[in-house]
Amino acid sequence: MYDQPRPNRATPAMTFDQMLEHVRYEGAHPTRERAAEAVHHVLAALGRQLTGDERVDLAQALPVEAALTLTAQIPDTEQLTGWGFVKDLAERTGTTPAVARWDIGAVLAVVTRLAGTDLLARILHRLPDGYALLFGQAELRQPQVRAVAA
């Protein structure tokens, strides 16, 4: 079975500079440099969690600089839950979980717009529980019912 060819987007929906301005606005960051730092940290962390076609398709939707940050990461062998993702980013950046969550929300709000609804749904399906809220979406997964031994 062969993969269907993906349409190559000649130009991304926004430039990296525009992405930084959106993240700066969403996160109320005081400087463009602080917004760039948040983008690189969050996309690197996401690159460690996301695999498969969703990773490739997301990279195609992002500006080149952002895509390079995402794809430069080797995916971890163990996927983190949404809360684990926040704690891991806080630990790696030397911030609090609250600051990490704030940065994640600002960056992923922009990523959500760039990805579109179909790709976002595929990304959330691939990731463990807890990521939908990080992307500003409702958590729609049904809890798994455990069978009770008789």
Give an overview in words:
- The structure is a single chain.
- This protein is mainly α and 150 residues long.
- It has helices at 16-27, 32-47, 52-61, 64-71, 82-93, 97-126, 131-134.
- Residues 1-5 have low confidence and may be disordered.
What is the topology?
Blueprint: H1 16-27, H2 32-47, H3 52-61, H4 64-71, H5 82-93, H6 97-126, H7 131-134
Helix pairs in contact: 1-2, 1-6, 2-4, 2-5, 2-6, 3-4, 3-6, 5-6
Short key terms for the protein model shown above:
single chain, 150 residues, mainly alpha, 7 helices, 61% helix, globular, disordered N terminus
Taking pLDDT < 50 over at least 5 consecutive residues as the criterion, the unreliable ranges are 1-5
Report the total helices.
Answer: 7
What is the beta-strand fraction?
Answer: under 5%
Average pLDDT confidence is 89
Structural class: mainly alpha
The helix/strand series, from N terminus to C terminus, equals HHHHHHH
Give Rg in angstroms: 16 Å
Query: How far from one another are the termini?
Result: 44 Å
Number of strands: 0
| Major β-sheet annotation | none
Overall 3D shape: globular
Query: How helix-rich are the residues, as a percent range?
Result: 55-70%
